[in-house]
TrEMBL record:
Protein name: MFS transporter
Keywords: Membrane, Transmembrane, Transmembrane helix, Transport
Pfam families: MFS_1
InterPro entries for this protein: MFS (IPR011701), MFS_dom (IPR020846), MFS_spinster-like (IPR044770), MFS_trans_sf (IPR036259)
Domain (Major facilitator superfamily (MFS) profile): residue spans on this chain: 1-404
Bilayer disposition of the protein: Multi-pass membrane protein
Subcellular location: Membrane
Keyword Transmembrane helix among UniProt keywords: yes
TM ranges: 33-55, 62-83, 89-110, 122-148, 168-186, 212-233, 253-273, 285-306, 312-337, 349-374, 380-400
A GO cellular component entry from the record: membrane
GO molecular function: transmembrane transporter activity
Amino acid sequence: MLVAYTSSFIDRQIMTLLVGPIRADLKISVTEFSLLVGLAFSLFYSMSGVPLAYLSDRYSRIRIIMIGIFTWSIMTMLCGFAGSFGPLFLARMGVGIGEAALAPAAYSLISDSFPPERRGRAMGVYSMGAYVGGGLALVIGGAVISMIEHAKPITLPLVGTLQAWQTTFFYVGLPGFLIVLALMFCREPARQGITNKPSLSVLFAFMRQQSAVFWTISIGSSLFGIAAIGYLVWMPSILIHQYGWSASKTGYIYGSILLIFSTSGSFCGGWIADILTQRGIKDGALRTLIGAILLAIPFAVSTPFMTSDIGVTVMLAALSFCFGLVQALPTTALHAVTPNECRSQITACYFVFGSIISQGIGPTLIASLTQYGFKDEMKLGLAVVVINAIMLPLAALILLSGRKAFCRSLDAIRH
């Protein structure tokens, strides 16, 4: 599952370092590029999530994941054949549809494979894939940028001329097919603790009874996501334009930061939540989530203001660790109060809402503030800081407001 999640984020995030050549060749604005990174992916990721999760609660989760990986790999490769904004937008939509199959089924598989007191670490290891994939996407992108400086376009029969950035999509899509082959040899764990046949009635009953818990976790995490994805999408451009880094240097350094600090943060977040739970702190996952967001605030509002390469690198490493701490905790908390019969569907509802808000709105909100508010692309770093300064404290407050309801839900389940 970790390898599959890593692959999904490579395919999802590879565009963030290719912003320069893509904008130059397709002649699109920063706001249009943000739509490719955000809305094109998140809209159909969201629309497909719940139906695919419903199937995951009723049928083989591994088979559904295999179909999803095959779909997003094909659509990633098709991104490389796009010669204008429209076809690239459509291909990104296809990537979103394929990736919607992964998270609900994967989290359900993990919950059935580990007891509650070990689930946080398991979720943390799986969630590391987001940052491993994001980091590798930047490292790969950095290598591609180095190649672009010297590579000549290639011409294929029936296809035409392809630039180096276009062939990148073809190469990053290929590993998905190997993952599909590997999953053919995996056994699916038995579903644990099922008392009712999976149905929409179980989902609706949960949403009625646990609405306060679901919405506080979903809204709080989505606002955090606006801040975190804002950095993930736009920090490469900030390093290139504000600090004068080359695109290849940006890819290697920022990608390495994500690989080292964000992945270790993701594991540590789940580990801390498990320790608190084992010590009898029933809302350990939620407490860790709130604390991690608060810890990130000083780094989030100061990183783009650093005046040296060393300063921005150190601050970005600290911020990436804090953001990594958060990664696995919302789903860990949600699964603690969710019946197995609808875990995939609840996870999908959470990701649907989060994708629309975080990935659909976040990058475009920052781009619009830069282009139409500050009217200066060199103010991109300031726009990221403003959004983070608003979203992170608000996210922590909303999550804190749902803590009592979360504890009541845990007590009801245990009694």
